[in-house]
Protein: Transcriptional regulator, XRE family
Organism: Geodermatophilus nigrescens
Amino acid sequence: MTTAVRPPVGELLRGWRQRRRLSQLDLASDAEVSARHLSFLETGRARPSREMLLRLAERLEVPLRERNELLLSAGFAPAYGRRGLGDPDMAAVTRALDLVLTAHEPFPALVVDRSWELVMANRGVDLFLEGLPAHLLEPPVNVLRLSLSPEGLAPRVLNLPQWRAHVLHRLAREADLTGDPALAALHRELTALPGGTDRSTPDGIAVPLRLRAGDDVLCFLSTVTTFGTAVDLTAAELSVEAFLPADAATARWLAARSAGGEPGPVARTAG
């Protein structure tokens, strides 16, 4: 069995400081340590304590998963556990997620992990999944791949270049903030898909998702909810993506669909 070789903790610290575009003096001042001591930590001339590592990681806004990596590289035990959603200790988390998803119905809402893989969804999400090929819906379902794939939602997204630019910018930012190579690889994969990008400033207050539904056009704005005080990796890396109607016609259409009635008229697609 091959044991993974971890980079020196000082190298990791320097990498996170540079990723956050901070000088040693900036970080030292924020963490209330001397710049000389921080320099010694980064070069390996001094060994950080567990408390010092956690303080620096907090100031650098290092994700919890990577904080564990810092601790392990310094010879300490991880500080943050990881429980599955089926674990009894996670019952409060799953109840909260169920509550949020149900409260958003009939509007689509889903839960994803850090890799953008689908964890949970409410009934409104069926609107997005109808008619998609089975191989795209086999777990684990990556919702960004699903939304931008030519076999997925992309042909139904009427403002695809604008929506792609928004999705790719957000994914690139998350890959940079977390340093996660899997997110960077996903960004490269999705960037290579067709569809173009439109980086012009959109009208209105946010980038909408304009989706074809039969002969109708639905318009959504998306919101993101996270657990702000999570100290478990699973909970910290979950987010709820909710799609809210951007106009009254879309809201009425979704309400009628949920009630089993005939959706009322909204904007029509051309052709």
Observations:
- The domain at 9-73 is CATH 1.10.260.40 (434 Repressor (Amino-terminal Domain)).
- Residues 101 and 122 are 6 Å apart (CA to CA).
- The beta strands are 109-112, 118-121, 209-213, 216-226, 239-245, 267-268.
